[in-house]
Amino acid sequence: MRGIRKTAYLGLVVGAVALGGCLSGGGGGSSKSPAPSPSEPLTEQQQRIRDGFFVVQTEKLPFDALNATHANSSRWHGVLDGAGYRVEVPENWNGMLVMYAHGYRGDGPELTVDSPPMREYLLDNGYAWAASSYSTNFYDVRAGVEDTNALALAFNDIAAENGRPLDEPTHYYITGVSMGGHVAGAAIERETQQTANNFVPYAGAAPMCGVMGDTALFDYFTAYSLSLYAFAGTPADSFPLTPEEAAEKLEIARDTLWADYEANPHANGLTPAGVPFLATLQNLSGGPRPIYPLSFGGFQGLLQGLAGDDGTINGVLSDSVVDTTQITYRFETAPGAPLSPAEQAFNNSIAQAVGVSGANGPRDDGLRLIPKVNGDLYADIPVVTIHTLGDLFVPISMQQIYRQRMEANGWGDNLVQRAVRAPGHCDFSLAEFVTTLDAMLQWEQNGTKPAGDDLLTPAVMADPDFGCTYTVNGPPQTVTRALMPACTAE
């Protein structure tokens, strides 16, 4: 993602990152992701891989026992096909394996691995878990899927090489956060079953704060910038802009749409010219809902840092995949209503980004460079997702897109979605991580479908109490949650 500021992003991930050396275990039996076809030019990302840019931080792989209760769990770490890994198996293993997929790591060379935030729940209930660093950084979901699956397939070899031969898992599950939610969503797709070099027949999935609309996320980023420029009176003539053009337009937008952007980038700091932009971003990110106005200012620097992106997702693709031609900008009317004359004029005049045909097309060497989340499952499996209402980096509109795709493919009954009243990205309490994963596992094993939220009915989402049902306030988000409006039942 060209333009992403790694430190700014990490500062917003107040839930997933906070909760979440020597080599051991070679882990054979897996298939390394193949080199690109020699008939195709290398993308920037493929060149980085070929140049050996990415390095596993092996000194960060070892991990201690969680607590005295699980002091005797088997804990293994190592490197598998260029990706670091951690694996943990409790003494009373129930025969099931949960794969955890981490989120976006920025564009540096250091590869690191997280333990899942729900680690204690997994061990308490007898589940083994495994997590990969992936063999690359950047927005390389292809590597995330392949390396996570390769690690799952190597689980028994790793165990045997570490002196604890185990039976093959009876069930494989996958969960992940942010980009890792994209990994989890793509891993259960029919297209992945048909094209991945490493495929795992997962019994269920729990993507959290995930990029469930795949490349539609980057359409959203671009629509943000194009509308920002237009409302500031300095519209783009075309897409992409050069970084210099984007920087110049951003400076004008900050001066025009905010009274003093540096001192107060929040909603109450907008000028009258900025008020339509506030409404537009609300609708681009999922429609009227609680928490949105309180989150607006906290994401402006991050979203504006993406201006100047050329649509190749920082070199993961060779050509631009961004397309805004299906996006409708609203700032006076509700979703589904006819556009007002002012909105119609705005939509007619704003520059459009048009993706290059085939920029992220199917390949003959495995998955697409950015795997699709088509909403077309490879099997009848349960999927439970969770998303915060205030997230503007990976907005809840990603979940709406996923619901629409699952419904269109006849898999709507396999999806349960939940919303949480929190302001940040992946801003979940530990209880919310745990209850989401548990809901999916219980559904798959006991056949009882859990309840969820309706994310497609605007009137439901606009209710001041929307999101109350599955919000479980608690650590580590006690400070930011204290600023959220209370539910009427509280």
Helix amount? 25-40%
Shape: globular
Quick one: CATH class of the largest domain? Alpha Beta
Structural class: alpha/beta
How many angstroms does the end-to-end distance come to?
40 Å
Strand content: 5-15%
Computed Rg: 22 Å
Strand order of the largest sheet: 2-3-6-4-7-8-9-10
The biggest sheet amounts to: 8 strands, mixed
Give the helices and strands, then pairings.
Elements: H1 6-12, H2 16-19, H3 44-50, E1 55-56, E2 74-80, E3 83-89, E4 96-101, E5 110-111, H4 119-124, E6 128-132, H5 141-161, E7 171-177, H6 179-187, H7 190-195, E8 204-208, H8 216-231, H9 243-257, H10 275-284, H11 292-295, H12 300-304, H13 341-349, E9 383-388, H14 397-408, E10 415-420, H15 430-446, H16 458-461, H17 478-481
Helix pairs in contact: 5-6, 8-9, 8-10
Structure, explained:
By secondary structure, the chain is of the alpha/beta class. The protein folds into two domains: 6-215 and 363-461, 3-Layer(aba) Sandwich (Rossmann fold); 216-312 and 322-349, no CATH class. It has 17 helices and ten strands. The strands form two sheets. An eight-stranded mixed β-sheet has the order 2-3-6-4-7-8-9-10, with helices on both faces. Helix 5 (141-161) packs across helix 6 (179-187).
